[in-house]
Design goal:
By secondary structure, the chain is α+β, with helices and mostly antiparallel strands. It has 1 helix and 3 strands; from the N terminus they run E-E-E-H.
Length: about 80
């Protein structure tokens, strides 16, 4: 059961909906059935996109670890018992 993106011709509301075989989608805002199907970009996962996502996550996690270490050190210095 694919999810499609539509634009309502009557009220210009854009929405996504699950369309089953034999069903006619309707606008959730005005209940109109005069709809224009929009082009959707597929979600693609490949080795290259996975690699890019992993490198970005590693960079983000490294930066966050540095901030966490600095905050911990400042806390320890301020709370020397």
């Amino acid at each position: 059961m694919p999810i499609f993106e539509y634009s309502c011709d009557a009220c210009h509301h854009e929405f996504e909906t699950l369309v089953r075989t034999g069903d006619t989608p309707a606008c959730p805002k005005c209940a109109g059935t005069a709809l224009t199907k929009q082009l959707s970009l597929p979600a693609i996962k490949s080795e290259s996109t996975h690699g890019l996502a992993m490198r970005a996550a590693h960079k983000r996690d490294t930066a966050q670890a540095s901030v966490n270490a600095r905050v911990q050190r400042e806390y320890e210095l301020a709370h020397d018992d």
